[in-house]
Amino acid sequence: MDADTGRGGGGDTGADVTVVGEGTALAAPDVLRLHAGVEVRRGSAAESFTAVRAAAARLAQALRDAGVAAEDVRTTDLSLGPEYDAYPKVGAYRAAQGVEVVIRDLAAADRVIDAVAGVGEEARLNGLAFEVSDPAAAFAEARARAFRDAAAKAAQYAELAGRGLGRVVSVGEEVRGGPQPLATAVAMAAEGGGSVSPGRQSLTACVRVGYAFA
Which of 37, 39, 141, 164 could form a disulfide with 25 if both were Cys (CB 3.0 to 4.6 A apart)? Predict the structure, then answer.
């Protein structure tokens, strides 16, 4: 429930009414995390591993040529194992190496993606995620909206109770889910002709506020 009336309601000592306010602010993502990699299949484990390491080296060079800094590339996966035609007969050995690429200039996203694809048939693109590098300002706005929401709810409950609303006696922030993408957002990259669309992220703050009656 969003409100508790009565002295001490909701566990807030000295509060006559306790409400939960929620506020949301929008933020434009400015960082893209691209999950990519290389994968090969060869007749032997040694051949497969050698080939995937060579492909990974080409991928690393392609990312450097696309302007990605070395510290923005992180190896996330390295695997080698058999694939069976009919167990226990081994048909081939599969080797894969995955990387996470941090793209800090969204205008360069298409160039980096094209660089990965240009590595050749070994290249893999395994998804992407957008994030806001500094969400502090958006969260501050969301908190302010949450507090105003709580104040409006408390005022309504006080009026319903036939009482005046007094001072704030407790404030606590409630933690809920992280930033969420908006499905209906206008995509910045689409406006600029790019194929990658970051849209907007919704950042939500929740606050529990206890008030005394006047």
Answer: 141
Q: Which tens digit of pLDDT belongs to each residue from 7-22? A: 444 456 678 999 999 9
Contact by Cβ (8 Å): 138, 26:
yes
| Weakest-pLDDT range from 51-55, 122-126, 149-153, 190-194 | 190-194
- What angle (nearest 5°) sits at the alpha carbon of residue 187, between those of residues 184 and 188? 150
With 0.85 as the threshold, say if the pTM is over it. no
| 156: alpha, beta or left? (left if phi > 0; alpha if psi -120 to 50) | alpha
Instruction: Give the chain as a 3 state SS string.
Output: CCEEECCCHHHCCCCCEEEEEEEEEEECCCEEEEEEEEEEEECCHHHHHHHHHHHHHHHHHHHHHCCCCHHHEEEEEEEEEEEEEECCEEEEEEEEEEEEEEECCHHHHHHHHHHHHCCCCCEEEEEEEEECCCCHHHHHHHHHHHHHHHHHHHHHHHHHCCCCEEEEEEEEEECCCCCEECCCCCCHHHHCCCCCCCCCEEEEEEEEEEEEEC
Q: How far is CA 176 from the centre of its chain?
A: 14
- How far is it, in rounded angstroms, from Cα 79 to Cα 99? 12
How do residues 59-92 score in pLDDT, each as one tens digit?
999 999 999 999 999 999 999 999 999 999 999 9
- The residue among 8, 26, 25, 27 whose CA lies nearest residue 16 is 8
